Amino acid sequence: MHDIWNLWHGCKKISEGCQNCYMYYLDKSRNADIKSNIVTLTNNLDYPLKKDRFKEYKIKSGEMIRVNMTSDTFIQEADKWRDEMWEIIKKRSDVSFYILTKRANRMRFCLPPDWGDGYENVILNVTCENQARADERIPYLLDIPAKHKVWFCAPLISEINIEEYLRTNQIELIMCGGENYGGSRTCKYEWVKNLSDQCEKYKVNFNF
Predict the structure, then answer these.
(1) 10 Å Cβ neighbour count for 20?
(2) pTM over 0.85
(3) Average pLDDT, whole number, for the chain?
(4) Residue 41 in contact with residue 77, Cβ under 8 Å?
C-alpha cells in the first residue's frame, strides 16, 4: 500500500472495537484541542489527482490507497462529501482503493448510482472485532455486489468463528490484528490460530 487518503477526519465510537481507537489516542497525543468525535472535511480531498512537477500523478498506477483511516467512509456526517470521493475513485481507475468500515449497514445506501456489480478498483472491507460484530456486519458485505471483498478482524478481542461466511467463496482475504494504543486489550494466539485454520480450510488468504 502506498499511502492513506483521509478525506475527512473524526469519528463516533459505535462498538467494542472502538474502545481504544488509535485515532482518538493519536489526536490527543498530538493536539489536546482536537475534537476527535467531530467529523470534518480535510484539505486532502483531491489527493489522488495531485501531480508532481513533471505533471505526473504522485500516486502511481497500480498502487493501493487506504481510504479514511482516521474516520469511517460510510459515516452519516460525511454523506455530503462522498459523491466527490466516488468521482475521484472513478477518475483514478488505475489505482486500487481499500475502503474499511464498521458501518456495514450503511454501505449499500452510500454506493454510487453506477456501482453495478462493483468498481474493479475498489476493495470493500468490514471490520469485525468479536463474534457479535462478525454476525452483524459480514452479512451486509456478502449481500452487496462487489469485485473485491475483505474482512478485517481487528482489534481482535475474542474468538471468532466465520466458517459459514467463508464457504460462500466471496472473500479474498482475512486480515487480523490486535490493539496498539491506549490500554490495548489482549489478543490471544489461540484466536488468531483459529482464524488462520478456518481460512486455510476454505483456501482464503490470511494476513496477521
Answers:
(1) 16
(2) yes
(3) 95
(4) no
